[in-house]
Specification:
By secondary structure, the chain is mainly alpha-helical. Helices cover 57% and strands 0% of the residues.
């Protein structure tokens, strides 16, 4: 699988949590998160170690290495689809941060 599966950004950080029971993230909630550029930038800075992390950011940093390797064993098919959508969004709209994240978490 390609490195394009780098991180579960924004609202998606909560999607692949390690707990067995977790709330589903609706497609509408995901869309709202992706449309909040300040929120996205805050999560990117957290993931890169450039700013403090909120609980979503902390999950993001935990899950990023797993997702980068193309695996999220706790994720459902719907969550995987949402993660792929999120990653595509980040690649298109934040290419410089994406490149940094790939370098940081792929090792």
């Amino acid at each position: 699988m390609q490195i394009s599966h780098v991180l579960v950004l924004c609202a998606m950080a909560a999607v692949c949590v390690a707990e067995t029971q977790r709330p589903q993230v609706s497609d509408t909630a995901l869309e709202d998160a992706l449309n909040d550029k300040r929120f996205i930038q805050r999560q990117l800075k957290c993931a890169l170690g450039e700013a403090p992390c909120d609980p979503i950011g902390k999950r993001l940093k935990t899950l990023a290495p797993l997702v980068l390797r193309g695996a999220c064993p706790q994720c459902t098919p719907q969550e995987t689809k949402q993660i792929q959508r999120t990653l595509s969004y980040v690649q298109r709209n934040f290419p410089q941060q994406w490149a940094k994240i790939v370098r940081q978490y792929s090792g």
